[in-house]
Design brief:
Blueprint (H helix, E strand, L loop, with lengths): L6 E8 L3 H13 L5 E4 L8 H4 L11 H4 L15 H14 L6 E2 L2 E9 L4 E8 L5 E11 L40 E5 L3 H11 L4 E5 L14 H9 L2 H25 L1 H13 L27 H14 L11 H17 L1
Parallel strand pairs: 1-2, 1-6, 2-3, 7-8
Antiparallel strand pairs: 4-5, 5-6
The protein binds flavin-adenine dinucleotide.
C-alpha cells in the first residue's frame, strides 16, 4: 500500500496577522536552523488590518507600542489608520522574507498531539479548493487572534428581521455600503464605535450612538511630539525604543492608577477632557467603574440608553427611527467628538 508522505516542519505558525509575522521574524532570527511555515486561512496577510474596512478604521493604541520592537514605526501619526498598519505588517513580512513562508488559503481545522512521537498532527483545509491535507510539527504556534473571522458577535435585536434598512456588522463592511445622506444608528460604544461615528458623520444625514454603559474617552494628540523630535536627532531605532518605553510606562502607570484609585483617575480624565464644557445633569458620570481604561468620558448616561433601548424594542421594525430624547445629549456628544477629532 502506498503511504502518503506528510510534510513536517519544526514550527507551524497559524495566522499571518501582526502576531504571526512577528512570530516568524523572531523564530528565523533567533532559531535560524529551525524550519517553519505560516498557515493562513484567508487569501491575504495582515489579519485584523486586512479584514476590517469600515469607515475611519484605525488603531486606538499608539504604534510605538502596537508596532514590532524590531521595526521602528517611522510615520508621523502615532494613532495610525488601518491601511498604514496593513502596509507596515506586509512590508515587515516582505523585507524579512517571511512572506515566502506564508501558505494562503490554508485553514487549520484540527490539531492532535502525540506524546509518543512528540509532535503535532495538524489537519489543514484549503479554503480555495476544498482539498484537505495533514502536516506535522514539533511546536504549534497559534497566532489566530481573538475573534471569529466568519461569525462576529451579533446580539439578538428584536424586530431586526423586519427592519427595512441596511443592517451591517463592521467586520462585514464592504465598499458598496452607501450611507451618504442616511440616518444611522451605531449600536455599541467601544473602540470600533468611537472610530466609526465621527467618520460616518461626515457623510450621513444623522448618526446616533447607542450605548449600554457609560464610557470615558480620552482624546490624545494623533502625533507624538517627542517621537517626532527624537527621530530628527537620533537614529530611528533608538528614537523608537525610547518612545516605546515612555508609552509602555505611561500606559502601565495609568492602568495601575485606574485600578487602585479609580475615582482619582476618573476625575483626572474628566478634568482634562471636559474643562469649559458645561455638562448637563443627564450626562453626569454614573457609578465609578472599578476597572480603569484610557478612554473614559461619559457620553450617554445609562438611564437614557435604557430609554432609547426601550424605544428600540417598541419600534421593532424601525431601528433607524430611534432618537435619543434629549437634544442636549446629542449636542454634547457632537461637541465631545469634534473636540476629540480636533485634538487628534
Ligand atoms: C478594529 C480593530 C482595532 C484594533 N485596534 C487595536 C489597537 O489599537 N491596539 C491593539 O493592541 N489591538 C487592537 N486591536 C486588536 C488587534 O486585533 C490586535 O492588536 C492585532 O492586530 C492582532 O493580531 P493577531 O495577528 O494576533 O490576530 P489577527 O489580526 O486577528 O490575525 C489572525 C490571523 O489568523 C488567521 N486565522 C485565524 N484562524 C485560523 C485558522 N484556524 N487557520 C489559519 N489561519 C487562521 C486569520 O485569518 C488572521 O489572518 C484591534 C482590533 C480591531 C478589530
Amino acid at each position: 500500500m502506498e503511504t502518503m508522505s506528510i510534510e513536517h516542519v519544526d514550527v507551524l505558525i497559524v495566522g499571518a496577522g501582526l502576531s504571526g509575522i512577528g512570530a516568524g521574524y523572531h523564530l528565523q532570527t533567533e532559531c535560524p536552523g529551525r524550519s517553519y511555515a505560516i498557515l493562513e486561512a484567508r487569501g491575504a496577510s495582515g489579519g485584523t488590518w486586512d479584514l476590517f474596512r469600515y469607515p475611519g478604521i484605525r488603531s486606538d493604541s499608539d504604534m510605538y507600542t502596537l508596532g514590532y520592537r524590531f521595526r521602528p514605526w517611522v510615520e508621523g501619526a502615532a494613532i495610525a489608520d488601518g491601511p498604514s498598519i496593513l502596509s507596515y505588517v506586509k512590508d515587515t513580512a516582505r523585507e524579512n522574507g517571511i512572506d515566502s513562508k506564508i501558505r494562503y488559503h490554508h485553514r487549520v481545522a484540527r490539531a492532535a498531539w502525540s506524546s509518543e512521537d512528540a509532535r503535532w498532527t495538524v489537519d489543514v483545509e484549503r479554503t480555495d479548493t476544498g482539498e484537505t491535507a495533514q502536516m506535522t510539527c514539533a511546536f504549534l504556534f497559534m497566532c489566530t487572534g481573538y475573534y471569529d473571522y466568519e461569525e462576529p458577535f451579533t446580539p439578538e435585536l428584536p424586530g431586526a428581521d423586519r427592519f427595512g434598512g441596511t443592517l451591517v456588522h463592521p467586520q462585514h463592511w464592504s465598499d458598496d455600503i452607501d450611507y451618504a445622506g442616511k440616518r444611522v444608528v451605531v449600536l455599541g460604544s467601544g473602540a470600533t464605535a468611537v472610530t466609526l461615528v465621527p467618520a460616518m458623520a461626515e457623510e450621513a444625514a444623522h448618526v446616533t450612538m447607542l450605548q449600554r454603559s457609560p464610557s470615558y474617552i480620552v482624546s490624545l494628540p494623533g502625533e507624538d511630539g517627542l517621537a517626532n523630535f527624537l527621530r530628527r536627532v537620533l537614529p530611528a531605532k533608538l528614537a523608537y525604543s525610547i518612545v516605546r518605553w515612555k508609552n509602555v510606562l505611561i500606559t502601565s502607570a495609568f492602568f495601575q492608577l485606574s485600578r487602585r484609585r479609580p475615582k482619582l483617575a476618573k476625575d483626572q480624565v474628566l478634568r482634562v477632557q471636559l474643562e469649559g464644557c458645561d455638562l448637563p445633569p443627564a450626562l453626569a458620570p454614573g457609578a465609578t467603574r472599578e476597572e480603569g481604561g484610557w478612554w473614559r468620558i461619559p457620553v450617554v448616561d445609562v438611564a437614557h440608553v435604557e430609554q432609547a433601548l426601550a424605544r428600540l424594542r417598541e419600534a421593532g421594525a424601525a431601528i433607524a427611527a430611534v432618537e435619543v430624547a434629549e437634544p442636549e445629549l446629542e449636542e454634547v456628544f457632537v461637541k465631545i467628538m469634534r473636540e476629540s477629532r480636533a485634538a487628534a
